[in-house]
Amino acid sequence: MILITQLIYLIEGQEKIFDEFESIAIPTISKYNGRLLFRVRPTENSFIESHIDKPYEIHLAEFDTEQDFENFKQDEERKKFLHLKEQSIKMSILIQGTKL
Predict the structure, then answer these.
(1) Distance between CA 18 and CA 8 in Å, rounded?
(2) What mean pLDDT, rounded, does the chain reach?
(3) Tell me, what CATH number does 60's domain have?
(4) Which domain does 12 fall in, by range?
(5) Is residue 49 in some structural domain?
């Protein structure tokens, strides 16, 4: 099992477009032996300390295998909507790990 944490930074004013992309991408996770464990929109007072920009959202997902995650990223239906992701996301940080 692999865990994927993603810090997502949006382009200001593109929240609705981002939500449109997520409405397609998130259900696709389960097609590839994956589960969205949580999706958080932290508020300013959620941070105790920070030395980087605060993300718009934080996602934690798990996939059974690395190949499942790769297959998710290559999903043809999801790829049709990547322009929404590109239009709305300024930057994202993806952290991959395993459960200890």
Answers:
(1) 10
(2) 96
(3) 3.30.70.100
(4) 2-44+54-97
(5) no
